[in-house]
Amino acid sequence: MQNVFNFVAVLGAGAMGKGIAQLIVQAGSRVVIYDTSPEALQSAKTSLSEQWKKMLEKNRISSDELKAYENRLFLASALEDLRECDLVIEAIVENLAIKTSVFKSLEAVLSPTCLFTSNTSSLSITAISSALANPKRLLGLHFFNPVVLMKVVEVIPGLHSLADDASRLSTFVQQLGHTPVLAQDTPGFIVNHASRGYSTESLRVVQERIADFAQIDLILKDQAGFKLGPFELLDLTALDVSHPVMEAIYHQYYEEARYRPSFITAQRLAGGLLGKKVGQGFYTYSNGVKLQPPEPHSNGMERDALPPVWVSAKAARRPEIYALFKNLGLRIETTAAPSAQALCWVAPLGLDVTTACILEGLDPSKTVGIDMLFAPLQSKRWVMATNPALRADMKLAGESILRLDSKAVSVIRDSAGFVTQRVIACLINICCDMCQQGICSPTDLDLAATLGLGYPSGPLSLGDSLGGQNILEILFNMQTVYADPRYRASPWLRRRAALGLSLLHEEA
Fold first, then answer.
1. In terms of CB atoms within 10 Å, which end of the chain has fewer, N or C?
2. Which is nearest to 489 in space by CA: 499, 481, 478, 500?
3. Does residue 193 carry a catalytic annotation?
């Protein structure tokens, strides 16, 4: 089947432009790369040629395919050379004035039937198109880097765009072998918006001195299954890219508390600690390899010195905690109240250990918390929370008990929602509100998050697996503890949890 667009102009010979050109050439369309720099153009052509030769050496393409690819690639340093194109994909600097100026120049040169698209990740499509005599002809077509490997593309109509053009672009994306997701023209679109809770809430945890960067990364990878922790991810994307996006989305939503950035990234950006590309970020890198700091580890108590354990009747997954302690051979108290010698275990959803002690009338000097949001079989790590009044010997006892098991152990300071609960709940809540705003369909949101962010599952599907009512309880309790509107539940989540519906459910 012939591609929807046969001759495509890619504006910008940088990493994104080069990747987009490669993808489209390999799918069978002719591509002309435009750039004002002859050096950048030649570098892009050389780089693509080398890439295709490597693919030939690995028997991924034939010599005929290599020749066909090279014959379908053209270079241009004048806009007039783009006259025959039926699609333009702009991938230049993220500057509204520069983008609008380029599109105005294109409009004066190219055929009225040529469709314009911008690969912007943060600017409004409607704002870019407003400078055109015919704003209907411009939409967003947002690829992700590396373009060939990242299989999702956001298709973003502006206020004036035509539905038929969005449909044509979606078909074209499918012809490229990628997955299109339809997004409304809102700050961050889908992928950059959906990821807000992961990084900003993790920064908030650090800001409260609950855990450090490396601990948080390990917890979220081992408990929730993320491939990269939030601080590994920030180091990879680099703070000179990530922090401005945090600020842009926050301000474009008129200081919505859910998107509030952190002074931590602002300070580190000012200090030049950008991440992996400069060798220093949240981690130190040697020849591009992260130097992983050692995990804190106590010497532990002898088994005979361990106190008996008592589990709160309100603990989440209480039977599973009992099963753990029984398998570890501990002395378990099953009385209504703990003895004076017992170490008390609470497992709240969204509350901190301090509040749980007050509500249940427990002695905080002998009470620790354990995060049981994820089932033990899903999790590779136990997370224990202390509280300000906890005795040192009881802290050591709690850590020693968990280290009897085969899983890794993290000990954190008191926090409403531990680490995993609060990050996961914020992530799911923001994604629910995106659906409430009609930014995208629930299905497209989950697709975009798994393909564009590499999440282990879509946020809405994850919410279903953990229980919408549990996520709602976490948020409600966190808002009670912190009195911060960032934790208020989206109506989408609140109503579906109350009615026992899937978070993917759309009203008829």
1. C
2. 478
3. no
Phi/psi of residue 73, each to 5°? -105, 130
- Is 90 tagged catalytic? no
CA 30-35-38 angle, 5° bins: 105
Q: Does the annotation mark 199 as catalytic?
A: no
Cα–Cα distance for residue pair 219/204, rounded to 1 Å: 15
- pTM over the 0.90 mark: yes
Domains of the chain: 7-185 (3.40.50.720), 192-291 (1.10.1040.50), 303-412 (3.40.50.720)
Q: How many whole angstroms separate alpha carbon 228 and alpha carbon 454? A: 9
Partner residues linked to 33 by β-bridges: 10, 75
pLDDT digits (tens, 9 = 90+) for 270-298: 999 999 999 999 999 999 999 999 998 77
| Number of C-beta neighbours around residue 305 at 10 A | 11
Q: Which backbone phi and psi does 90 adopt, to 5 degrees?
A: -90, 125
Question: Rg for the chain (alpha carbons), in Å?
Answer: 26
pLDDT in tens, 134-155: 999 999 999 999 999 999 999 9
Cα separations in angstroms, 111 against 88, 102, 107: 11, 15, 8
Q: Kindly state the greatest CA–CA separation across the chain.
A: 85
Strand-pair category, 152-157 with 343-346: unpaired
Pull the structure tokens for residue 136.
Answer: 């209907």
- Report d(CA 176, CA 23) in Å as an integer: 7
- Residue 323 parent element (H or E): helix 318-327
Of 269, 229, 273, nearest in space to 247 by CA = 269
Q: What is the pLDDT of residue 212?
A: 97
Which one of 118, 119, 121, 490 is the catalytic residue? Answer: 121
Cis peptide preceding 146, ω within 30 of 0:
yes
Of 103, 189, 175, nearest to 144 by C-alpha is 189
What SS3 class is residue 417?
Answer: coil
Q: Which residue in 29, 118, 119, 142 is the catalytic one?
A: 142
Taking the C-alpha atoms of residue 485 and residue 333, their distance in angstroms, rounded to an integer, is 39
Question: What stretch of H or E contains 234?
Answer: helix 230-237
202 is catalytic: no
Residue of 161, 192, 199, 242 marked catalytic: 192
